[in-house]
Design a protein that fits this description.
The protein has helices at residues 18-21, 34-57, 61-87, 89-94, 108-126, 131-155, 179-197, 206-222, 242-262, and strands at residues 13-16, 30-32, 159-162, 168-171, 174-178. The protein is mainly α and 282 residues long.
């Protein structure tokens, strides 16, 4: 078979060239990069869809926006720290400050963990249930994830094994799977399903549990296609990638959340909209 997917390269848009303007400026040019732009579009679009869903269900909009700010901040922080610690441990040993350079790499599972910790921090700060807020965000997340993985697909930072499949991409050194594209296709399918299901109320935890339960086995299987012949290849622990180990934990979390959503003792609580929390004094 012949690979049908193109190897797309989009250059960065340089806004300010430090070398052209003289000394005293950072050595790297100020530019807009396609990966960061697509991620930003995804975050923005996901937030818009989450707010619309929250408004439809009767959520307090300011509280929902505040919640999203906490989990997005936690997600970016956790995504970078997880990526650096588990995928590039030698970098941390050589340069511990690399943990603070958030722009140098992100891990999806680290982002999930960071977002969860952000939700816990929000609850500790403001009180009240967080599962309804998490579920509203989860109903919009696959759409945002499409753009995030589109950014990975143009950066080509998730190369897979060599393949002549029609789903492979003609990299310069030969046709490979691009795992960013494959995951983007999964996100497109789940986003379309969620956008249709959002028309009716669902028990709290439905979207979060369904998203996690569908992603865990998909990602576990997908990581067997990761390249092993490149310097960018992941670290392995007992022959599994960090994401594969995290997928096992995510599947357990998904089952717990779905059981809570579908077997709640208090049926009214399965759809109850949380009251706006009382903001504690500064």
């Amino acid at each position: 078979m012949t690979p049908l997917l193109p190897y797309v390269q989009i250059g960065e848009w340089v806004l300010l060239d430090a070398h052209a303007l003289g000394a005293g400026l950072p050595p790297a040019p100020l530019s807009i990069k396609p990966f960061g732009t697509l991620v930003a579009i995804g975050v923005y679009l996901g937030a818009i869809l989450a707010v619309r869903q929250g408004r439809r269900l009767g959520f307090d909009e300011k509280t929902l926006v505040r919640f999203m700010m906490w989990i997005v901040a936690g997600g970016f922080l956790g995504g970078h720290v997880f990526d650096t610690l588990f995928y590039f441990p030698q970098r941390v040993l050589a340069d511990p400050l690399s943990l603070l350079r958030l722009w140098e790499g992100l891990s999806s599972f680290g982002g999930f963990l960071g977002a969860f910790l952000g939700a816990l921090a929000f609850r500790a700060r403001f009180g009240g249930p967080t599962l309804p807020y998490m579920d509203v965000v989860a109903s919009a997340f696959p759409t945002a994830w499409v753009f995030g993985r589109a950014g990975c697909s143009v950066a080509h930072d998730h190369p897979g094994v060599f393949s002549e499949s029609w789903l492979a991409v003609p990299y310069p050194e030969g046709a490979r799977f691009d795992l960013g594209i494959l995951e983007m296709l999964w996100a497109v399918a789940l986003a379309l399903v969620f956008l249709r299901l959002r028309r009716r109320p669902r028990p709290w935890g439905f979207y979060l549990g369904t998203m996690c339960l569908s992603y865990a086995p998909f990602r576990f299987t997908l990581d067997f296609l990761r390249a092993r012949d490149l310097r960018i290849s992941d670290e392995r622990y007992f022959d599994l990638t960090p994401a594969q180990w995290a997928s096992v934990a995510l599947a357990v979390v998904a089952v717990v959340v779905l059981r809570q959503a579908l077997r709640s003792a208090d049926q009214s609580a399965r759809f109850a909209v949380p009251s706006p929390p009382v903001v504690p004094p500064a």
